[in-house]
Amino acid sequence: AFGCSFTDMEYQSEIIKGFQSVFYFKCKVCNIVEKLYTENINKTETVTTNNAAVNACQAIGIGHTQLSEFASFLDIPSLSCSSFIKIQSTLANIISDSAWEEMRKAGEEEKELALKCGDVDTDGIPMCTV
């Protein structure tokens, strides 16, 4: 309505959430406050930076303290301990569910292979050679 653009915006504040930030800008013309996110919050198919950081820590065998120390060397804010633990717990459930699903699929595949090859016991139950 007023022909405002980003050049009319003035930085107000930043909210830091681990490795993500939200910047608040206020228009000097119409006083509208806009948010600028450091990553796309609407993309559900991508992994957030915070989740990726915690997942990487689990993969290489380090914890919150080492992540925070590493981030401090880079001079960037890190996750709080409680946020790290919350994300770690959520990821553990996702990984566990995924592992069980993959094991179920592998079992079904082994069953089909056993049936196809005739590897069944006297009751007709498929057997897997180990």
From TrEMBL:
<dbReference type="Pfam" id="PF20700">
    <property type="entry name" value="Mutator"/>
</dbReference>
<protein>
    <recommendedName>
        <fullName>Mutator-like transposase domain-containing protein</fullName>
    </recommendedName>
</protein>
<feature type="domain" description="Mutator-like transposase">
    <location>
        <begin position="4"/>
        <end position="130"/>
    </location>
</feature>
<dbReference type="InterPro" id="IPR049012">
    <property type="entry name" value="Mutator_transp_dom"/>
</dbReference>
